[in-house]
Write a structure and sequence with these properties.
heterodimer; A: about 950 residues; mainly alpha; Transferase(Phosphotransferase), domain 1; Serine Threonine Protein Phosphatase 5, Tetratricopeptide repeat; 5-stranded antiparallel beta sheet; 3-stranded antiparallel beta sheet; 41 helices; B: about 190 residues; Rna Polymerase Sigma Factor, Chain: A; Arc Repressor Mutant, subunit A; 9 helices; about 80% helix
Chain lengths: ~950, ~190
């Protein structure tokens, strides 16, 4: 035959060439010297190529595949099954027994002296003594003619444990079952004094029945010995592969530091991977960074990567993975015991035992749910605030209706008719006649029922009465009852008066406010803009009526979440009212108060405070310190202080207002109740949960009587009480109360009312804290969708829903989704609320926390520092939110062991808090507690590293 | 730059030839830089460490301390590189009192010597092959190199590579082996000291 082509020779070399061609090449080679030389060269080239490729991509390959089949006395080698860093495994038949065995031939494993050889044999003997169904025991060993060591093992048909597949395919329970079998085998060996030292998935074969078989038991030291003699051409990937399961003490390189707890650690890594499909920390990158990960980086809780994993299982896995041996399970038996307890639903024993562990736990427990709750707090405060401001607006509207009424031609006649009617109603509702207290609601209901018959020939009087009834119903929060009254009044006025008649416009405005209260913004929009335009047409831009109508439009915009537009509208109203009515006019002052709120919500605190204190000052001067409007302004300023984190100041203002209101107007007055609710909230924010609770319970009882059980304000108070329970972690009480509030809001405000959605969202917060994450997600998804539909994509409340979902995703370890959602929220908040808005900063704060959880510590620190600085500037150095950012930042710094920096920051925060509130203040104590904690951690870390040095 | 064997470079280095030093640095700076990076030095610091290491080698070499009979250049440079990098880290940590660096020094101490050596070997081998590949690119036809890269490094089937390059199948295989053979020769010329 002619000389074969180079391709054919390559195939011949690699064994790919099939038989007829193969034998003809064989034949040719015997006679062609140049082809023999070429073949040799091709063999060398193949080795060169393998070296080039491994240098380019440091991955393990089938090194040694080309090695000649060894001659092992007593065994027929059938085929090679696998080549790894340590040697090649062959399938073979034992000649004496005819059974199939696995023979592992160690690479380059020649012994320099007898001592080393004896040690090798002793190790093999020990390993051979293991007799366990899940351990592939070694039953023979020896040395080939050319001096290489080999081991003979039971042959197991199976594949190496695939952790990724396990995590994807197996339920948590099945994973634990499989893992327990592996651990039980390890435990068996430990009890016989054999440590594995190199546990990793590739050393666990899974057979067709899914049963595990552990390889290389007790051989790591032996194998290591031979491995150390390998040439420069060692595949570094193998070492890294082993390194991935090496305990911190193994990385230290001191063989004496290795004991059974190193196997506990390796098992921990495997369990982590089997549950999550991921390594506990990154194992790619530079050697230095891998070693750093092993020695320093705390693993993330597995539950962040797989939601079926619960807190207890987290604890078990993390305890097995503890960096310090002393803090791990002290034996595999201990680990197994806890896994069995866990499977049986019994409490596990794994509890943090060391100082540092406990301290870290304390730290993380403090931060856990805060992100979500803080969000709710802001949302609730804003809601409270809005209703305070516009309770007034509503009353003003009814006053205006009254004024319009008084100016009309029919004034005297109508006044008389209404007077008669009301007297009649009051007489019929006489408690003596009914034998019990009559509520306003009953009296009004009775009036409504008799209107039809009372004013048959006086339609305009009927319209007046109906409008008044509607205003009263609205004040009672009975929107459904109010609506037909005002609708009828409007019909009458439209048909008998003109569209632009002042009375018609009053009815339209009342109906518009009603729709706005009920969250029916589209309908409110049409009426409110209509009224405004008609006023402009008939009395011009700057008439008091036009300005009042514009004020209502501002309210609507505010509620629609278009704060920027509301701000512009109110600024325009204020300018007009200052010019037309003067600064001291009640309407002007009301607008100032509204504007204060919108400034506050826009994060413009300086302007908010200026506006609020100015209107309070004028009220005091004009109306006197005890006038209801003055007290309301005081209460309003106190709410602002709450929002800004000045809780003590808020409580003082509220207490002052409350005492006077109680004396002047009585405890059951809506203003008084509103202040009480605010005072309760201020106590709550100060952490005075019991004071707050007592006051809240009293307020709710009074409100139920005075305003009614379904009044939006009563429901808001119930919601706030539930928040208190929530803060006290009494979820068993918070949940039913949130639920009751939700049901009542659904019934009386409708399924899509913003308040109803807030309740739904708050209920989900409880679920979130209870770990019922699927339900949480379902509710928050629903809230988001409804808010998008009813409030629009650009409403701040819609952002809150998105923000909450991101918090949830992050907790579930769905980092990519969390990332995406946060990015969206951040973008929207920056655009709609502004880059320095507290809520924008809140999102940035959470993104920093996400980076921390992702292990991207540098980004977490840089972002955290940014938020901290901005919050210091915006909210002040001592605001709770500012301090939370500091605490979170501190935690990341601690992980980086940057204790010095963390301590400096805490010290300066403590100085600021103590200067502002005094040393005794709770907030000072809280910061001091952190500082103590930090110092203890620092000491513990120092002790740990010095003890690690000793090991 | 003219290709010369390392043996020749070392001979010339004895006589303080600038060109020889340049070649030496060109040849052996890269593995030290890679190694230093692997051990956690920043890019700039790694470059500086490599410069220090090679200079230290030169001084020792000219002082006659390098005995080719006692160990290969590969191992000798390893010792020097390791020492230089460690010194540099300690100095950085001390000078700047940069906490993370001080910490990294502790980590360095914790890395098992075996892993350090493997890392060096890998850095060395990567650098050697990089230079071999660079040199074959100078010496051989671009088409030959392309054929090699396609079939040997990118696992493109010979048939496709042949079609893409307008060569015969056999020519592709010949090209592949020509490159590999030359790489092996160059590798020996670099390492055989």
């Amino acid at each position: 035959m002619p000389c074969p082509e180079i391709e054919q020779l390559e195939q011949y070399l690699s064994g790919e060439l099939e038989l007829p061609q193969r034998s003809s090449v064989d034949l040719h080679l015997t006679s062609c010297e140049s082809c023999r030389a070429l073949l040799e060269e091709l063999g060398e080239n193949a080795q060169t190529l393998a070296a080039v490729r491994s240098a380019c991509v440091a991955v393990g390959g089938a090194a040694g595949d080309d090695a000649p089949i060894p001659n092992i006395p007593g065994y027929d080698i059938i085929r090679s099954i696998n080549a790894g860093g340590q040697g090649i495994i062959y399938e073979a038949r034992q000649e004496s027994t005819k059974r199939t065995v696995a023979v592992k031939l160690l690479l380059h494993g020649r012994y320099a002296d007898k001592l080393a050889r004896r040690r090798f044999e002793r190790e093999i003997d020990l390993a051979a003594s293991l007799n366990h169904p899940s351990i592939v025991a070694v039953f023979d060993s020896g040395t080939t003619e050319d001096g290489r060591m080999y081991l003979v093992m039971r042959y197991v048909e199976g594949a190496a444990l695939d952790v990724v597949e396990a995590a994807r395919e197996l339920e948590v329970e099945a994973t634990l079952q499989l893992f327990r079998k592996i651990a039980a085998a390890v435990n068996y060996a430990h009890q016989r004094g054999v440590i594995h030292r190199d546990l990793k998935p590739s050393n666990v074969l899974i057979d067709a029945e899914g049963e595990p078989h552990l390889l290389d038991f007790g051989l790591a030291k032996t194998l290591d010995l031979s491995e150390a003699q390998q040439s420069v051409h060692t595949q570094a990937g193998d070492f890294v592969g082993t390194l991935a399961y090496a305990a911190p003490e193994q990385v230290g390189g001191d063989p004496n530091a290795v004991d059974v707890r190193s196997d506990v650690y390796a098992l921990g890594v495997m369990l982590y991977e089997m549950l999550t499909a991921e390594h506990p920390y990154p194992i790619d990158g530079h050697l230095a960074s891998i070693v750093r990960s092993i020695t320093e980086q705390e693993a993330m809780r597995p539950s962040t990567k797989r939601r079926e994993v619960d807190d207890e299982l987290d604890t078990i896995v993390l305890k097995a993975l503890a960096k310090a041996k002393d803090r791990r399970y002290q034996s595999v038996a201990d680990l197994l015991r806890d896994l069995e307890r866990y499977a049986a639903g019994q409490p596990i024993e794994a509890k943090g035992d060391s100082t540092l562990y406990l301290l870290r736990k304390t730290l993380s427990r403090h931060r856990g749910p805060v992100a979500a709750v803080a969000v709710i707090f802001l949302a609730l405060t804003a809601a409270t605030v809005v209703s305070v401001g516009f309770w007034r607006a509503a009353e003003a509207d009814s006053a205006r209706a009254q004024a319009a009424f008084e100016q009309s031609d029919l004034q005297a006649k109508k006044a008389q008719a209404i007077n008669d009617f009301l007297l009649d109603i009051l007489a019929s509702a006489n408690p003596r006649r009914l034998g019990r207290d009559v509520t306003v609601r009953e009296a009004i209901d009775q009036a409504a029922a008799t209107i039809d018959a009372s004013f048959t020939d006086q339609p305009l009087v009927e319209a007046d009465v109906r409008n008044t009834l509607a205003v009263t119903y609205r004040a009672l929060g009975l929107y459904e009852a109010a609506e037909p009254q005002v609708v009828r009044a409007l019909e009458i006025r439209r048909s008998l008066l003109s569209e632009a008649h002042i009375d018609t416009l009053v009815s339209m405005a009342t109906l518009g406010l009603l729709f706005s209260d009920a969250g029916r913004f589209d309908e409110a929009e049409e009426l409110t803009t209509g009224v405004y335009e008609l006023h402009v047409q008939h009395s011009g831009e700057d008439s008091p009526y036009t300005l009042a109508a514009l004020n209502n439009l501002g309210l609507l915009r505010y509620r629609q979440g278009q704060h920027l537009e509301a701000e512009a509208i109110w600024e325009r109203v204020l300018a007009g009212q200052r010019a037309v009515l003067g600064e001291d006019h009640s309407n002007t002052l009301r607008t100032m108060s509204n504007l204060g709120w919108v400034y506050c919500n826009r994060g413009k605190f300086d302007q908010a405070v200026e506006m609020s204190s100015k209107s309070l000052e004028i009220r005091r001067r004009v109306s006197g310190p005890e006038h209801p409007e003055t007290l309301q302004a005081l209460s309003s300023a106190a709410y602002l202080a709450t929002f800004m984190g000045r809780y003590a100041q808020a409580a003082n203002h509220m207490e002052e207002a409350y005492q006077v209101q109680r004396r002047v107007m009585g405890e059951s007055h809506a203003d008084t109740l509103n202040t009480m609710d605010g005072l309760g909230w201020a106590y709550l924010m100060q952490g005075r949960y019991e004071d707050a609770q007592a006051l809240q319970l009293k307020t709710i009882a009074l409100a139920k009587q005075a305003l009614g059980e379904h009044h939006p304000m009563t429901l808001r108070m119930m919601n706030n009480l539930a928040v208190n329970y929530d803060r006290q972690e009494r979820l068993d009480m918070a949940e039913p109360l949130y639920r009751e509030t939700l049901d009542l809001r659904r019934e009386h405000l409708g399924d899509e009312h913003p308040d109803t959605l807030a309740s739904l969202s708050n209920l989900a917060v409880v679920y979130y804290q209870q770990g019922r994450l699927d339900e949480t997600e379902r509710l928050w998804d629903e809230v988001l969708e409804l808010r998008k539909r009813t409030l629009g994509n650009d409403h701040p409340e819609t952002f809150v829903a998105m923000h909450n979902l991101a918090v949830l995703y992050a907790r579930q370890g769905r980092f990519d989704e969390a990332d995406k959602m946060y990015a969206q929220v951040l973008d929207l908040r920056r655009r709609v609320l502004g880059p320095d808005h507290p809520k924008t900063l809140g999102t940035m704060h959470n993104i920093a926390a996400l980076r921390r959880d992702q292990g991207r510590l540098d980004e977490a620190i840089s972002l955290g520092e940014q938020v901290y600085k901005r919050r210091q500037a915006l909210l002040g150095h001592t605001h709770p939110d500012t301090l939370w950012t500091l605490y979170d930042l501190m935690e990341v710094l601690v992980r980086r062991n940057a204790f010095e920096q963390a301590e400096q920051m805490l010290i300066s925060a403590l100085t600021a808090v103590e200067t502002e509130f005094g040393e005794e203040h709770q907030r000072s104590e809280a910061v001091r507690e952190r500082l103590t904690l930090l110092r203890e951690m620092r000491a513990a870390a120092a002790a740990e590293s010095s003890s690690a040095d000793d090991e | 730059m003219q290709w010369v064997t390392t043996t020749l470079v070392l001979d010339r280095l004895q006589d303080s030839e600038d060109e020889a030093w340049e070649t030496f640095v060109h040849r052996f700076r890269q593995p030290v830089v890679r190694f230093a990076r692997e051990m956690g030095l920043a890019a700039d610091d790694a470059e500086d460490a490599a410069q220090d290491a090679l200079t230290a080698f030169l001084v020792a070499y000219r002082a006659g301390k390098y005995d080719r009979g006692k160990g290969r250049l590969h191992s000798w440079l390893f010792g020097i590189a390791q020492r230089t990098i460690l010194d540099r880290r300690r100095r950085l940590a001390k000078e700047h009192r940069r906490a993370p660096l001080a910490q990294q020094t502790a980590i360095w101490d914790a890395i098992p010597q075996k892993a350090v050596r493997m890392t060096w070997d890998r850095s060395w081998q990567q650098a050697v092959f990089d230079q071999c590949l660079a040199q074959v690119r100078v010496e051989l036809e671009p088409k030959t190199i392309q054929a090699f890269e396609l079939v040997a490094l990118r696992d493109v089937p010979a048939e496709e590579a042949a079609e893409e390059l307008g060569m015969t199948r056999n020519a592709v295989f010949l090209a592949k082996h020509r490159v590999l053979k030359r790489i092996r020769e160059l590798q020996i010329e670099i390492e055989a000291v």
